[in-house]
Amino acid sequence: MTMLEQGSITIHTENIFPIIKQSLYSDREIFLRELVSNAADAIAKLKMASFAGELSDPPEPEIVITLDKEAKTLAVADNGIGMTAEEVKKYINQVAFSSAEEFIHKYKGKEAEQAIIGHFGLGFYSSFMVSRRVEIDTLSYKPGSTAVNWACDGTTAFTLSDSERASIGTTVTLHIAPDNEEYLEPSRIRELIRKYCDFIPVPIKLNGEVINKQKPLWRTSPSELKDEDYLEFYRYLYPFQEDPHFWVHINTDYPFIVQGILYFPKLRPDIDPTKGQVKLFCNQVFVQDNCEEVIPKFLLPLRGAIDSPDIPLNVSRSFLQNDRTVRRIGDHVAKKVADRLNELYTEDYEKYVKVWPDISLFMKFGAMNSDKFFAQIKDILIFRLAGSPADKPEYLTLQSYLERTREKQNKRVYYATDEAAQSAYIDLHRSQGLEVLMLDSWIDSHFSSFLEREYKEDGIQFKRVDSELDETLVDKDKAAEIVDPVSNKTRSEKLVDLFKQALGKDKLQVKAEALKSESVPAMILLPEALRRLQELNAMMQQKPLEFLEEHTLILNTAHPLVQNLQALAEEGRDPDLVTLICNHIYDLALITQKSFDPASARAFVQRSNEVLTRLTRRQ
Ligand SMILES: Nc1ncnc2c1ncn2[C@@H]1O[C@H](COP(=O)(O)OP(=O)(O)OP(=O)(O)O)[C@@H](O)[C@H]1O
């Protein structure tokens, strides 16, 4: 081989290699993505040249990776456009090196891993992260070109000489550095190709076998695809997972290009909606998972892929976050998702209702995170009606709830958080024609406050069924209000006194009301605002929720037990039994609201036995 030229790369930072090696240590593997993308670009360029008539009979495109464990080399060969000696000097010595230098200047001193997404922009240069020496053998498609060999051992010196390469294209050979021998393992290379280059539309071969899928489904026109194609693609991306509910195919090319498929997976209600699963691609090359700067955070529980060449990737994250095009792409993707949800709601309501438990968390989270998204989906947010059968639940939108109950409920939205525990309250409301909505997921306490703020002007208020008694739920019990001339007190007041004395709790409020239902002798009310505040505090301090001391005991004067008890008290025969029963009625009301601590549970059981013993005693 005759040496053509020896030279020195003009860069202004000495020893930039160690800096880059150091700062990108954890992500060295991206070198392969860079080399394969360059190879694919070179193949695309050759195709363009042949379209333009510059070359007849272009070869069948392919990228071949060759591993040689003995020689410790990894070679990436393409049959693309190739480079002339002049082009090598220009593109490799100048472009590649100066962009690496620029990278170092930009990010020196900063946390480089934080600085750029997927380290785009480093290009060919990233090969030095894993190599002690890099060689390029290339032959340009241009008529009359000769093949050249470029070699560099990671200093600023390079050599340029003749090459034996006979066919058009480029081979980049990495002489792998000692602690990087993992990149000589076929399994590791397969893994990396699958991760980064699976959808590059050129066959990538290793040991004679094609190891990439090539066809990204999102590039196919939606009209050509069947449900089974989407499902198969999902199973490929997320193996061993349940099939998704539905999906949205995004295929936009103006004013920016963004393509992709987002799937709505079967979400468990306890899933953390901030953990992302959406893969970001740029021209079919994988960039990263969970790209929060590009895909709005609330869309992250979805799965699938978004591909856009219009996202500037060789910039810092904060730049990306503030970039207008990126924001518009994010908004656009969110709008497509909202459109798909609206379409499902209007065209297949039955399915919408069926998947609602799985998508509701995502939608509520999205509504609270983005005003735009909220505006797009607010009319399709639905709430299950308490009391509707579990196998055929009935749902209402907020609007339809309010319209249906306009006269009776006066913009109040009654809700329950636990259908079983609050059943007495729910039944009381329903028996008087007041509908109750279920808000029973962890996000709902925030979500109801959010809706109150959003609908502030309409004066909509959310009231849990146990927060106060609507006047439609109580009868005006005239008899109870007659003043007894001896004590100067009404019957209600006397009943309240009786309980206050028997229970001896200062903070407890006691009220006597004639409820329009005889189902329970007493119930506990928790003031809405205080209860919410307490829930918030418990959440912020990550403490278990304590039972609110400032609660009210409502005694139902329409219930025979309360009436009998009052008569018994007036007889004055057995004041102990009266006290016992007062405590028992209170505990029975409490039991649906909180779990007892061991001491109260023991007292409750003891008292129950005592009451039963007395009842069965022969006079
Ligand atoms: N396999 C190849 N065949 C032909 N030309 C190549 C090949 N690899 C690199 N080049 C040339 O070298 C240039 C520099 O490559 P490098 O990977 O550093 O940067 P880039 O591809 O331009 O940008 P980036 O990789 O950062 O997106 C390329 O633009 C291309 O002209």
From TrEMBL:
Keywords: ATP-binding, Chaperone, Nucleotide-binding. It holds the Pfam family HATPase_c_3. This is Molecular chaperone HtpG. CDD domains: HATPase_Hsp90-like (cd16927). Transmembrane segments: none annotated. Residues 27-180 form the Histidine kinase/HSP90-like ATPase domain. It comes from the Bacteria. Belongs to the heat shock protein 90 family. InterPro entries: HATPase_C_sf, HATPase_dom, Heat_shock_protein_90_CS, HSP90_C, Hsp90_fam, Hsp90_N, Ribosomal_Su5_D2-typ_SF. It comes from Thermostichus vulcanus str. 'Rupite'.
